[in-house]
Amino acid sequence: MADSEAAADLAAFTHLGEQVRAALSERGFTTPTEPQRKAIPPLADGQDGLVIAPTGTGKTETAMLPVFDALAGEDRFGMQALYITPLRALNRDMRDRLDWWGEQLELDIDVRHGDTTQYHRQKQAEDPPDVLVTTPETLQAMLTGKKLRKALGDVSHVVIDEVHELAASKRGAQLTIGLERLRELAGEFQRIGLSATVGDPGEVGKFLTGGRECALIEVDVGSRLDVRVRKPRVTDEDETLAAELASDPDLASHVRAIRDLVADNESTLIFVNTRQTAEALGSRCNALDLPIGVHHGSLSKEARIEVEDGFKAGELDGLLCTSSMELGIDVGRVDHVIQYQSPREVARLLQRVGRAGHRSDRLSSGTVLTTRPDDTLEALAICRRAHEGLVEPAEIHHGSLDTVANQIVGFVMDFGEIGARQAYEIVTRAYPFRDLGEETFREIVRELSGNRILWLDEEQDQLEKSGGSWQYFYANLSMIPDEETYTVSDVASGRTIGTLDERFVVNFAGPGETFIQRGEMWRIAEVDDEESEVKVSPIEDPAGEIPSWTGQEIPVPRAVAGEVGEIRGTVGESFADGASRAAVADDLADRYPTDEFTASEALDPLEKQIEADGPMPTGDRIVVESEPRSIVVNACFGHTTNETLGRVLSALLGQRTGSSVGMEIDPYRIELDVPRAVRGSDVVEILNETAPEHVAGLIELSLKNSDALKFKLAQVAATFGALKSWQSDSRFGRGRLLAALQDTPVYDEAVREVFHDDLSIDDAGDVLAGVQSEEIDLVTHSGHTPVGIDGRSSGKELLAPENADASVIDTVRERIQEDRMRLFCLHCQEWERTQEVRRIPDQPECPLCGSTRIAALNPWAEEVVEAIKTGEKDDEQEKQTERAYQAATLVQSHGKQAVIALAARGVGPHNAARIIAKLRENEDDFYRDILSQERQYARTQSFWG
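Now predict its structure.
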């Protein structure tokens, strides 16, 4: 170590008093870690600070040692310091870590959250601890308590852990105003933020301090990573394993790779992107009796603690987990981290792999196991960006109106009454609300007054508590949406399996549907909305079963997708210049952390693209490829930008044709199912002619009929007190709610939140501007290309083998053969019959007139049949009638094969025609294509009219 570094080491601890230094020696801390060396001097000097450092480098002590030093040996009254964490589980961990210091320094340290008993709360109010570990929501409640307000008046330090997690959420926006409410009580206090990953430290520092000066202490995270990207190679063992797992060899190779990596290390976290993937892989691990547990937020608290303790004790060698494990819950030492499939964001890779190498000077060791070409290229881009420290910026909720409403009620709970001007000034001291207009603030106040949540004295410009204030405030302590949670229970035993979110149940649940939880497969017997319960029975032999539900993807940022586009461009040029695949793979493996086999596998669709003379989509080239009824816009702009562009295209194409346009997006493609009359040139025309400044207005119009906005509107309305309670079923009348709230802050906030969470208006506008200035190339191609069709599988969660095995195909075939279809003669319009598909002849014909022009319709299509007979049709029946005639044309040309395709779920006439038109070697492939289309419909049905 250089003399200057050694001196800095010594200097860091010399900023602390004798009592704390003695405790440091007792604890065995002789040399400060890098973040402690950099941060302790300014923090001990009383400065506000944001400390960004890898997990396991002593961030907690970095923040708390200067705080302890300020408190030790002083006469103390009330609470002196708050340590705020986003998770209750972190509260427990922090309490355990800080207790030793409290004993050494004679400081009282306690924890408080929603589960703290009433007795313990009363005790804290009567005799406040010196340091309280709590959550943002509990702070909200404490600010209104008479005795606790007095205790909080002595706060001189606030530490916020995992500040990046809060900065990107409405919980964090609420906390920023909460801190300003605390400032009204305690005056100025020191603010310290801790995080392992922050992409824009300056912005997050302002978020923390309200825009005031903040010391930024950063320790390089990327240089501590040792991460490799691997696509498992299918071996002979995997062929055998596939039969045991009732899967294909490709999936078996993934499970085998996880098994081997876990065996090579003592303790391994296996991160996946959704709860469903955790369950799916968990079920395969269970089948092999591997010592690997499952951990995610839908499991009960007891189940989570059980696997945490088992992992910490060494009873489990691995833990399959989601983002629930990103935030530093203490599960003991972690040697290695596996990321299954691309982590989607640089921040997630750093958070997750950063968990390895705790309490040691080793590099954080990780492996990203990828499944498909896009997945591999994306992981490579993310790993490179992680090493460079190119972390995504925090998406702060600027100007969240329902957060303001929530906190205005907090003011009247704090003070009983408060001047509107004073309330406005407190709100706008918080960084996310610095630009909130005074008139907007008044509209929010009037909305709350109209909902009888508070009283507004217009003459005195005073806000006062009303009879509804208390009930509202304590029902809305959290900005996490008040979404119903359904209990999942086993019909036979009555035991609780876990929970499911309301939106999940509303969109997907129904008797007979299947899903995986706790690594086991279940079939739904009943959904009880009154009791918020999903009753299930276990599937004893899951071989051949296909889980019905998939998870929501983590969005890939534009910068990551753009780098994938750059890789494509470089690779495309190499192939075009005649380079061999081996040479290109070798070059890619030199530039990115992977091996030649993984690189070569990722290059497969790119090589085929060049061989087929297809234009290569890149970060600055959009390729629009089209076939009848299907258009793929290859666009490397990430999820939210593509979602926005896709909605613009589907809305404008729908207006032109008067028909619904189906849409599916991934970070690299926008796939559109369009009427036959739509061509790729129509898409090009829209991209060239749509003014960038019109994007927001077009999107807002398109949202008005969407479930996404109506669901969000109900949540926001509840936060404004416009609804005392709400349910998501049809009885609620969300359409009427939309009309009633159109010109209110409630509607404005619902739109803002959908824009913030799911869309990227500015980036979509930038893309349109780039196309129109020719900075982005826009080219067309007739027919689908290898890169274009690769999207059909590249972004999907691996819940079941994509190429279903024989038992799955038999299940699909049997199900369709047992389905019933309504046959109706369009020639004489006199004959109709409903019967099982298996009993329908190879070439249906009318027994009355002999015509083969037979429409194959759903059994419940009585209204369509009646509309055809009478000629009296509304707009929707007109569309259904057109589809009936299309179906009849298919049946006339292809007989029973058309009936089978039309009997599938969500397969209309034009998709049935596409399935039938494919050349195949055997009947299994026909059913495999039907299954693929059913899956696509399940994922995209929310976009259909």
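Residues 615-784 form one domain.
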